[in-house]
Amino acid sequence: MGMKSKNGYSKFKYALFGAAFFPFIFCGQTVAYGLTVYSLYKLANFSGGIPFSYGAQLAIDEHTGDLYVIDDTHGGVSIFNKHGMETYQFGHASNLGQIVSLAVDKDGNILILSYPVSRTAADPYYIGFCDFRGKLERKIKITGLPRDFSGFLPDKILTCDGHIYLIDISTLLVAQVDEKGVCLKTWDISRLAGWNPATMQISAFGFTIDEKGNMYFTIPTSFKAFKMTPAGKISSFGQGGDGPGKFGVASGIAVDKKGYIYVTDKLRCAVLIFDKNLTFVREFGYRGYGMGGLIVPTDLVIDREGTLYVAQGGNRGVDVFKMGYD
Amino acid sequence: MKAARIILILLAAVTLVFGLSGAAFAFHNGGVGFCEGCHTMHNSVTGGTVAFIANGTTGANGMSSTNGVKAWTGTPLNGNTTANGGASYGGIVGQGENQYLLRGSDPSSTCLNCHAATKTTPAYYQEMSVSTGGANFIQHEAGDFRWVATDYTYTLTNPDMSTTTAVSKGLNHGHAVVAQDFGMSPNTLITAAPGSTVINGTGAYPSGNLACNSCHDPHGAVTATGGGSANGGGKLPISGSGSYGGTAVAGTQLGAYRLLAGKNYDPGGSSALKENGTGYDPTDSVLVGFPVQVSTDTSGSLNGMTGYYNNPLFTNGSGIKATAYQAASGNGQNNWTVTANPTAGSPAHNIYVQGMSEFCSSCHNQFLNNRATIANNTHRHPSGVKQWIEQTGQGTNASGNMDALYGNYNDYAGTGNYASGATGAGYWPLVPVELYGISNSSAVTDTTIDTNTMVQNTANVMCLTCHRAHASGFDHDTRWDTYATFISDSSVDHTSLANATDAYYGQTFGTYQRQLCNKCHVQD
Q1: A98–B133 CB contact, under 8 Å
Q2: Cβ atoms of residues A244 and A265 within 8 Å
Q3: Are strands A48-49 and A57-60 parallel, antiparallel or unpaired?
Q4: Are A121 and B313 contacting, i.e. CB atoms less than 8 angstroms apart?
Q5: Among all residues of chain B, which has the CA nearest to that of A117?
Q6: Which of A12, A32, A40, B156 sits CB 3.0–4.6 Å from B166 for a disulfide?
Q7: CA A287, A291, A296 angle in degrees (round to 5)?
């Protein structure tokens, strides 16, 4: 560990573990070494760090760098600028229902996936387009889902390349829709993988999509993370265990612009980093309250500049890190 | 050579633990799981050491001890001497962690590392979701701990018609376990277990000590088929879960239902926990060493997510939703016969056999006839072993063929739907009774608890007939809203109907269906 001044701020630099001992050649792949993480600060307002607790959901606006946090404990959405300062809140009013996930499209619209106040079995969710203040401008209804998606109940929304992706985490069903809600394509991941839901617990925890449409997700009970191409080819990576590079309870997952994959482990309280070849590269974090320590890390997102946000339990809020690609 | 053999054995063990999906899905598997799932072998926080600090003394970094427990002496967390700078949680002093080398700040936080879901992410056999409602809302019979983590504000109309903003405290909705990593704080509303008085020479059970392991033994010391007592070994190997009936492999035994604690269980921690917690040691000769129940979840321990437990909103792996117990709307009747179901048979529910009330009485002793020490116990609702649903001397019920309460339970299908042999009459999982006198291994196939089938006259009323084990959407942890005249008017916050469907786990009712006390005490 040591102090280092970089990009105008003086931050704590962490020694990285695991493959750091084998920085040049690892499993036949040339590993990009020099990957460094700097601990910056917590998301805050003028009263100090905000103690978001377990279950906070994160979303990033790729164009502005604004971060959105859905506060599961108190409800509503907080917006932060790229310096980690809260600039706005919305969604506390009950007319938006229970916002369970959020994404920002290329036009800057805030898309919310919400369970309405008067939720019914026939109408259990809606997709809402909101302006930058969170004011609901229109709702869309999803049409054109295939028959075997009759039980589809999305709990995550993502955007990629002008399309909206809705994910049913529990059943690993994914629907790609356009801005009018018309279904364009679907993926039944468990079927593509040949998994039998009757004998295998398939529920994912983390789920994200990169700019090429590759999907990444974690299934904690399998001690693995997965990558699926748009064509449906599925690869797994990671293994269970307690040492560096091993999964205790794999949780959130994110991908940066260089193809590095970040996976939180809420049992080991660490962030594991894999390269685009799905090879473990580095990890950082430990269970603790000190600098760089994490408590039950769950969701995480990373922006195009390498700023990494990690949500935690224990009223620890959202820690902000900066990746250095030396 | 010997070293190579040891390495091979270790590799085989690692493969068994992590390499096989089956092992991954059965962490407890009826007994103790692999140690590193919950503990660190050494010290996990900041690499410091754990040291013993004598009572009343102050150790390194200002850490102190009140019970002589081991406290963390590493770098202080945020400079605090207790977790979050406040009172110690779960009787744990210091950082609130590492007293038992746990991987959470306290015992419940350790459990919730696997058993807590978030709004968009379910957990394996989740016991606490983050949101009230939604796809990942906990569906198990015992209820979702989330109900106790949320306060419900509502507008109260006063007698003079003025209004006041009132709060239905979440802490009053169930067992408020302490799990600081997950935002679950000690119960400040109810500081001791209701109905808890002096047991075994100690005081009432303190709410601040309540944790998952107050009721569940994570090490599975007591077993379903082999009995057991206290912590320790020397028993037959546990070959599987005891939650689903079945028979143990020869030479082995099954674990206890949901790892419920048994006689002389000692969860560790503070002295109050040891002596007054689930010191389940009733002297009644009719009682077994632990509560007996099984689940009809035919998927067994391999796939908890297909256990529907009454909820029509829950989806199975193929995205199909059950629609069990769907009521005919618009009239006063309930037809809660299963109307659609993605699995064979009925949606999963618990089958209670015996001992649940006695288990609860470890802390709530004054509510149980057999254990109460306060006079006037005739004013107590019967509950427990041999508190038969059939009570003599009460005459016959309206259909004239059975004693009153017993007949009512079997004939009552809903408001305005009461007749012998009526569709839907018989056992109702929302108002469950215990089947006394059968083995748990046979209970799972006992058809007397199926809908449309009469329960036996030896069935017992129990605490869980009216309450949920973990938490519910309503005050006092009741299964239905006792403040609503009509069930359809039920409200988690006494005003809004928004969450009531979730509180009933998707079961719906006719508009004029009245309180479910009527299942036994028909007045409607």
Answers
A1: yes
A2: no
A3: unpaired
A4: yes
A5: B498
A6: B156
A7: 30
State how far the alpha carbon of A3 is from the alpha carbons of A38, A288, B197, B407, in Å.
Answer: 9, 20, 57, 77
Enter the DSSP assignment of B62.
G
Q: Which two tokens stand for residue B354?
A: 């015996």
3-state secondary structure of A48: strand
Binary contact (A155, B313; C-beta < 8 A): no
Residue B356 sits at φ, ψ, to 5 deg, of -65, -45
Are B299 and A198 within 8 A, CB to CB? Answer: yes
pLDDT tens for each residue of B41-65: 765 544 444 444 444 544 444 444 4
Q: Do A287 and B116 touch (CB under 8 A)?
A: no
Structural domain boundaries in chain A: 11-42+206-326
Helix (H, G, I), strand (E, B) or coil at B41: coil
Residue B475: Cβ within 10 Å count: 18
Task: Quote the CA–CA distance of A57 and A217 in Å, as a whole number.
Answer: 15
Task: Give me the amino acid identity at B257.
Answer: Y
Helix (H/G/I), strand (E/B), else coil: B447: helix
CATH superfamily of this structure's domain A11-42+206-326: TolB, C-terminal domain (2.120.10.30)
Strands A234-237 and A224-228: antiparallel
The dihedral over CA atoms of B247, B249, B255, B258, expressed in degrees to the nearest 10, equals -50
Indicate if ipTM > 0.85.
no
Q: Which helix (H) or strand (E) holds A320?
A: strand A318-325
Chain A contact probe: residue of B75, B120, B303, B306 with most A CBs at under 10 A: B120
Residue B319 DSSP code = S
Q: Where are the beta strands (DSSP E) in B262-364?
A: 292-295, 350-354
B286 torsion bin: left (phi>0), alpha (psi -120 to 50), beta (else): alpha
CA-to-CA dists, residue B136 to A175, A209, B123, B130, B313, angstroms? 19, 22, 8, 9, 10
Encode chain A (326 residues) as per-residue pLDDT tens digits. Answer: 333 333 333 334 443 433 333 222 223 333 345 788 998 999 999 999 999 888 899 999 989 999 999 987 777 899 999 999 999 999 877 678 888 899 999 899 999 999 887 666 677 889 999 999 999 999 999 999 998 888 788 989 999 989 999 999 878 999 999 999 999 999 999 999 998 766 667 778 899 999 999 999 999 888 999 999 999 999 999 998 888 899 999 999 999 999 999 999 999 899 999 999 999 998 998 887 777 788 999 999 999 999 999 999 988 899 999 999 87
Question: Per the CB < 8 Å rule, is B119 touching A155?
Answer: yes
Q: How many CB atoms lie within 10 A of CB A85?
A: 12
